[in-house]
Structure of Aspartate-semialdehyde dehydrogenase:
Amino acid sequence: NGPVVAIVGATGAVGTTMIDIIDARESVPWSEIRLVASARSAGKVLKVRGEDVTVRLLEPEVFDGVDIALFDVPDEISAEWAPIAAARGAVAVDNSGAFRMDPDVPLVVPEVNADKAADRPKGIIANPNCTTLSMMAAMGALHREFGLEALVVASYQAASGAGQPGIDRLQAELSAVAGKNVGQHGGDVAAALAEAGLGTDSPFPAPLALNVVPWAGSLKDDGWSSEELKVRNESRKILGIPDLKVSATCVRVPVVTTHALAVHATFGREVTVEGARKVLSEQPTIVLADDPAAGRWPTPADVVGDDPTWVGRIRQALDFPNTLELFVCGDNLRKGAALNTYEIAETVAASL
Ligand code: 2RA
């Protein structure tokens, strides 16, 4: 009989993507897939691999008999409940920010550092933030070959990074501006949203429809956003380069799902575009879409719903030695969240 897996937060944007991923797998190792959520969603019935599963309430006893518990819930819920699951004998794989930088919690991207999943003194494994994660398969592969030294990143982050409320808000804003003469002189997006009854109680700090917003997360010291610091700190931990130079600017764009990143990556060894293309084309979880003459490059619209990370626009920086420019797109709900969490669970299950 296989291990028992629990999905905590099964009814959220990431939880439901997790169920889609499980449904699409040819086979799964689990003898039971337990769905868990807060009182608001407990009792709902969801289909998993063709069978009705009733969502159970998040309470300590729900982890009895569970081997691996996947958490797709806000930081404060994970902070409280992942240790409870671990104390009841489960390996907790957590997709929140609660444990990512804890030195006793590995931060795992299976293509890059699967070996770290075995060293989990707290019984907890963390899944990276979706923005960092979107470039990790590519950066890990290039680092192994060319020795990464510095990253300068600008993100183009989708609304679903803010969960279902982010998706709902962007869709409502798009409906409010559709067909209206706004976004040019004399047409004010904010006024159109107000006219449509959309208040300022948005997951985003400015209108997102017809706009780009240079902010994601919360305010940290010296004007940095929490999201930008996550890109720096998590990249260092995952790649195992404590002194990696990283500078990020995180931007929200009116895309529903799939984060994109423009990456300026400097290496310690000589790197060529052809060499990078060869390395990336050999990775099973990367799609190389890099033929500008044919108009082939990654866009979120191509990548949404896809498991691999797509990479293109690979150029040798003209004024920076051993430096490449790349454009990377990854579905933030799949590889950026649910898929990577599930792949960690598969890695752990294989070792039980
Ligand atoms: C965002 N990266 O896009 C965050 C979510 N984890 O908002």
